[in-house]
């Protein structure tokens, strides 16, 4: 039995999307602190440059809405040992007002781009006869109906379904695929969205642990899912929600 290696990614390389900000940036920094070489993919040049100044590694400036550019960038970034699909976006709209263009944009970034990246990663690993691991950062919105979140909930539910199919098809090649599904997380955007007590308090009252997540708490779970400590976990959608899902 190999050591779980939870703290040690020395000699390992990881492609992290959505690394410019929020959870993705925290994942990238935490992996680098554990010795990994990080290829950080994002769409903000300034944020990627500041991250590279902090942790080294490589910067990949890509708009995931451009799937052809995403595929080219992913293929150029290979080989890497692990893939973390963390990029995501949301547009809040009542269900009756959601235009096809909005729905398409959210699904392209949240759902189709992770497929393109997973394909590039898995093809490379299989061609080299190497195992691997993919973690898709989903959301507990995949399990719920949330007002004004039609496109987002659909995109994350689809991402979880994709995770299960990839796990089935890639498992025989030794590639594990899992989703991590956080509840409300205090990114800069999360703090702005949930700063009003009248909005936050009803949700907090249902959280047994009494608070929303910090980005580090999501990143720690994502990183664990890459390690040998999770070597028999695949096809899972792991809720990190402070107990929200067990309350009535």
UniProtKB/TrEMBL annotation:
Domain Ketoreductase residues, every copy: 12-181
Lineage top rank: taxon: Bacteria
Keywords carried by this UniProt record: NADP, Oxidoreductase
InterPro entries according to UniProt: KR_dom (IPR057326), L-xylulose/Carbonyl_redctase (IPR051737), NAD(P)-bd_dom_sf (IPR036291), Sc_DH/Rdtase_CS (IPR020904), SDR_fam (IPR002347)
Stored SUPFAM superfamilies: NAD(P)-binding Rossmann-fold domains
Keyword NADP found: yes
Sample GO molecular function, one term: carbonyl reductase (NADPH) activity
EC number per UniProt: 1.1.1.6
Assembly mode: Homotetramer.
Protein name: NAD-dependent glycerol dehydrogenase
Gene source species: Paraburkholderia sediminicola
Protein encoded by which gene: golD_3
